[in-house]
What does this fold into?
Amino acid sequence: MVIVETQKEWDGFLTKFKSESSVIVPVQCDDNKHPLATNLCLLYLRMLDDNTEEYILPFRHSDAINLKRKKLYQIKTSQKVYTYDKKKLLHLLHLDNIDDIQMKSYLDKNVPMPIDELTTNAHEHFNRVYWGKSNINCIIPIMKHLEMCRLIVDEIKKGVFGSIQNCFETYNNDVIPNLYNIEKNGLQTTDGMVYSEYNPYTATGRPSNRFGGLNFAALNKKDGSRKKFVSRYGKEGMLVEMDYDAYHLRLIGEVVDYQFPKGSVHNHMAKLYDVDYDEAKSLSFQYLYGHIPDDVIKTNPFFAKVQTYIDEVWNQYKSNNFIESDIYNKRIYRKNLSDMNKNKVFNYLIQLMETENNMKILTELLPQISDYKSKLVLYSYDSFLFDFYLPDGLDFLQKVKGIIEQNDKFPVKVGKGWNYHEMEDITEKFE
It folds into this structure.
């Protein structure tokens, strides 16, 4: 093991790193802070060809002569790099050709790797004694970090050469970078910048989004807590949200080949139910996520097709022992699920369909808006929130709206506001 402190050691490390595949474990200064709100303490690297070469690159640790941060820009390789959290690593060190082994393992087992359960006595001691203090990792002995990193690498190696789903490349190269790119933009608040943290390793595949005591995926619309979210551009900016109309109904309509007429889906369903708008909306969600009554199947052509699809999916699940998403062909295996029934299986697919369609949109959208100052700062299931820089103009919003709506297949409502609580509907301005 080499703790890289001199130029000679650095040159030797770079030569080795560029010639072999490796595993990287980042250690940030403060584990209680978002990677974007703290500094890199050290990097641990294990070369995989002979499985013996180990390097620690110290950047902010009390036990070592620390390397200058600018050396991070020299860490480049064409070889494969493995890590347990690609999104976290990208926040600390930008590298191409990274494989997220946690994603690979998750696609096989439908649960995240038990990395958070790994620890050492020293880490437990320091975190207990110095609870609430900042940058504890900078004083935990470097050899104890070595011990911890070896435990993590042993866990990672279990997945490096294991089975792999065909969709892994898409999730590794599109989904994770999409979430990384949203996180790095941050959200401006009246108290400063905050960062979200998407967790894609959920049972249904729909990312959760929590950090720092905030559930960004479920910010309360009624209690005024959204008021603190504002534009980073002051008077030259505002928040703009694009929110899908009847998103799940339209997604399922695409799959079952049901053509909704132009206009409101819920108004269309209200006519089929012979009820008002609000009751129609309630009934549609009730039927979509629960049981579809026989009389509805007989009288409602949309739900007749949905029920046929539910039955087909259930039969495939029982005969194939997995269900497969319609967009990325991700498999959720029966061995990883329990207490399933046909409606629960269908609900899993709806959420997966929603997530993958959003990821497909983001893969198209993010490169096309990268040259603008306006930023996508939050994605939540059926909506996209932008910190809009006013000089980017209406053309920017028109471009974004066109991509998100996918040729008018999934129309959105557009809202604007000086804060995220007091939003004004401006959809008509785009008609």
Notes: Residues 2-164 form a domain with the Nucleotidyltransferase; domain 5 fold (CATH 3.30.420.10). The chain has a mean pLDDT of 94. The longest strand covers residues 40-47.
